[in-house]
Amino acid sequence: MAERQGQWTQQWIALAEAFIQMLLGGEVAELLGRPEHRWGDRTEEMEVNACCNGCGRKHRGWFRRNGSYPRSLVIEGLIIDFRVPRVRCACGGTVDVSFSVFVPYQRVSVEMAERLREAVALGLTLRQAGEMTAPANGGPLAKSTINARVLEVSRLADAFHKDGLERIPPAVLFDGLWVKVMEPTGERFVDVEGRDRPRVRRKRIGLLVAYGVDPVTGQWWVLDWERAEQEDQASWQRLLERLRQRGLVAEQGLKLIVSDGSEGLAAALGMVHLGPGVRHQLCVFHKLRNIGKAVKAALAGSREDRQRQRGEVVKEAATIYRGQDRAEITRRRDDFVAKWQGEEPEAVATLLRDFDKTTVYVEVAAEAAARGERWDVRYLRTTSALERLNRSLRRMVRQVVLFHSDLGLEVRVYLILLEAGEMLFSQRDHAMEILEEQLAAA
Question: Residue 315: pLDDT above 60?
């Protein structure tokens, strides 16, 4: 059976080689407008879609066939070796011909390029993507070859940041995470193989991400992201300003911004006007986490005692935000303060600090109810729902470890978000089908 399969494979390769060379020969005949072994007429003024590298002429009467050169093309499961017809000009220069079978310098078929991009979208490194496709290629492709196919997505990522938002969400959640990239130092060195190389260093940069949320259906999606040196006002302001230009304003339906206690974001929100009535909600999850860190009284006890005390304090603090209205939330807060003020003063102080900013969602949900809309407060008071997506991004960061460029990071983020289904596209289509359609359109 193995021998027979080997014979079939060789027959397929032979057929593919013959078919490709037939197509190439037909395109050259169409270009020159005459059969083989026939010279052209230099007085003919007919111009074609080909150009001489020497004299720059496009007149086909000056062009002639000049043998062929070998090429190989990696397609799904096969490596095809064939010969490409060479065309020369009467001046001696080589004529560039754009064949429909492949583009200049292409060694990987469209189908294989799709597989490589999908592998990267699933979080594989370039090396792992090469190993995964190696059985179909007769060996792993060079990382530079894979990277070139992946970086084709950069134009889509760039367009994503510039196009108007397809849908304006009532609530927007902001969050960030940190990654490492390579940064050129401006210095050069000679490596162990004697090659002159640029010296680079590791640099930690942030990814500031904005997510739209529909508080009626619970649907949420990525709006945009920004690479940043740190979570400062300038970085957040760049992201906010771009979102405003893309249509994220109160007049289009924006009601609420939800974030952690980032001072940079708070300052940026004061500089970028998103429209009247847009409120800022501080994340309840981050508030509860800070309360847990502030628990001190049980530190002298055993580990179990400390965990039990911290868990009890955080659990009771969390019940405050389960109140149905402002009055009930205030009553529960006061009960918490009365119970824990003497034993856990730092935890109580942490709760009371900016407490009103963690209950903004109450008024926002009440206003929605007055309009006849039922908004689930789970999507209004915390950014913790983003942890599923952040896990996808963090897994990508852990697997890649170090990005070789900002562009590589940008493409990876776009592919990961697309594969995770966090882009606002039709759910009918597979993520990679959407990607390939976009690349074809571009």
Answer: yes
Could you give the CA distance from residue 384 to residue 289 in angstroms, rounded to a whole number?
A: 11
For residue 20, give the nearest of 64, 60, 79 by alpha carbon.
79
In angstroms, the CA 87 to CA 61 distance is: 12
Write the pLDDT tens digit of every residue in 69-116.
887 777 666 677 888 899 999 898 989 888 877 766 566 666 677 777
Which of 17, 163, 22, 25 has its CA nearest to residue 87? 25
Query: What are phi and psi for residue 172, nearest 5 degrees?
Result: -130, 130
CA distance 318 to 284: 8
Report whether 275 contacts 254 (CB < 8 A): yes
Residue-wise pLDDT tens digits, 287-298: 999 999 898 865
CA distance 200 to 185: 5
**Assigned token pair, 342:** 């003497």
Spatial distance between the Cα atoms of 333 and 316, rounded to a whole number of angstroms: 9
